[in-house]
Write the structure tokens for this entry.
Amino acid sequence: QVQLVESGGELVQAGDSLRLSCACSVATFTFRSYAMGWFRQAPGKERETVAAINWSGGRTYYTDSVKGRFTISRDNAKRSVYLQMNSLKPEDTAVYYCAADRTLGLGYSSNEYDYWGQGTQVTVSS
């Protein structure tokens, strides 16, 4: 059973920064074989891909709206993935989900991902 647990979401003001963390329950060897992604879903909207990172961290993807503000990273030894979010905007308000994709490539779409966390709420006030 693969478990992903997100943390770090909270209520902040526009312009603030937050760092989301996601811990994975699998062994380090297995975690290294996963691409990891961060997704978000705002009320009344579809889930969207925010950022993704391949197994080594050598390849990343960001949706256009967060480029230059968000940074995805991973620590395979800690079996964790992170999302550093700077210059937050009210439109970043959403539930943020961490997900794992059993691929050595880079998953861009949510339907490619195999395991999901429960989500953490990020609220950005104006």
Notes: The chain has a mean pLDDT of 96. The first helix runs from residue 28 to 31.
